[in-house]
Amino acid sequence: LSDESRKDDLITFEELGVDSIMVDEAHNFKNLAIFSKMNNVSGISSSGAKKSTDMQLKCQYLSEINDGRGIVFATGTPISNTMCEMYVMQLYLQKSALEEMGIHHFDSWAANFGEVTTALELTVEGSGFRFKSRFNKFTNLPELMNIFREVADVQTADMLDLDVPALRGGKPIIVESEPDWYVKQVMEEFVVRAERIRGGGVDPSVDNFLKITHEARLLGTDARLIDKDAPNNPDGKLNKVAENVWKEYVKGNADGHIGCQLIFSDIGTPGPDKDFTIYDYLKESLIQYGIPAEEIAFIHDAKTDAQRDALFKEMRTGKKKVLIGSTDKCGTGVNVQTHLVAMHHVDCPWKPSSIEQREGRGIRQGNKNDEVAIYRYVTKQTFDAYNWSLVENKQRFISQVMTSKAVSRSCEDIDEATLSYAEIKAVATGNPLIREKMEVDNDVQRLKLLKASYDNQRYGLQDNFMIKYPKLIKTATEKLANVREDIKARDKELIDNPDFAITIGNATYTERVDGGTVMLEAISKCKTGETTPVGKFHGFELLVEKNFLSINYMVLRGKTEYKAELSTSPVGSMVKLENLFNGLHENVDFLEKKIEQYQNDLEASKAEYDKPFAYSAELEEKLARQYELNAQLDLENAKAMDADLGGPDEEKSEDRIENAGIVAEDKGIYMPDRNRKR
Questions:
Q1: Are 379 and 220 contacting, i.e. CB atoms less than 8 angstroms apart?
Q2: Which tens digits make up the pLDDT trace of 67-81?
């Protein structure tokens, strides 16, 4: 922020005299950059939004001048996607309190209240396994919530008796659609693609599970989002949405009443150069049913705040009866609840908070109706059910934290937005055992990899305590004995000849400056990369070592060798040589510690070698379950299936494509024009 040019050369925030701020929909500022030493850990983002950084600076300033007061946040979804959002909220509201507890940065907070879990899982492109670290587990949750509740007044639906309409039927209405032959064919193609990806025969930049996930999400809504020439399924999701909206329209506007509705879809939004959009198709279908065009609106048509306010007013008065929008544009800050009778989820968003924000448009104070219907649309044998299941599981995690009841000691986040091969095949076939079979196969392969790693580690440990460390101990012991012999020789020499004397070539020098000068001259004549004898010092052979890095060493050789770096100063070199000679006893302590360390490492290697495989029971259990599933699924060759874990060969994939085409053709030719409504 400070690097950018200032847009407003006026007074600063501090000069405004603001002493308090109140922030509604505070979750819009949760995307704050988190600085951490934990790298490549899913759930921790170091990138953030500038508006969040700006909010942090303002909160920090106001907290400083008001002794921790002056900041009020209001939100229904303080945690909407990841655990880190809890830390962000605390950073905004109670930074000083955290610092008093010794928590000055995210890593400290994570060490106290979070846990990074690492697991072996399939890569996104499905070509192999990798270790994936995720920050997805709360620990010491009661203590964390006690701290958080110093600044957070958590009010949940079970605590409040608000005058809001009831949910019709007590739960959302699930509307299921049958897939037509085209959707089934594309689903089969997804399976073939997944098999190829899993086999490693596809470039990840060309096709991967993320791409299949995106296309599958579109397919579950309407096949024309993938292929504009795809047939219009008369029993498809969009046609059922239009039918239910029409029924609610007739019922809600009978006897002089006003009934308005919201339709949510984050995909298939209107825009230029789009061959097919959900919004346009729904509008045309509703017009065909009999709803006037002027009573149907797109949230995207309201470009400015004034236009949005005018549109919302028309919804509240009943001039507009149907509003179609996305979560971002129609989920937050939209007050159109006055006559709302029904809400329709065409698609499933990835975050539970998005569902809360959507449904909060109607189930809120100010709605004059006694009840509101919520429709969720699912196309069978597609990934719609998977998406809803994923979001519900994530909501359970959030509910464990943001609750009025006592919280558990720990809870784990669910962070997975990419379909696996098992999920693709299970949904496509409609057989849940297929998914379990693939999951068990993956578990078996993962455990076998861990077992292979365990075996390799044991081989290394065996080599350590049988060869490596005994050899190191023997070498160090022999050197220690030689050092002690050299110390005896040194002590005798110092008694017999205590004065300085060095022999270079055939000449002996008693002055350090003379000996050092001649020694440096001798080094200049030595060859690089060699160790050359140049004389004697107190009965020890004196050598010089000249390496390729232009670093020269003096070497004293008795029973063993001792080395010191040469100085560029003649006197300095002689002082270093004397220190090396006088400090021979230091090698005794060093070698004794080394021998002790090697002995400890040897014993540790033995102990580690004797440990059993930690996942042995789990592997046996998974292998047994794999055999049972093979039998239940009537697989003709269980062993071949097990060997096929690495992925099918190309020939099998080609057969699947051909078979998929035959299945589609056998079902008859679909007549798109006859079934289209537009």
A1: yes
A2: 888 899 998 778 877
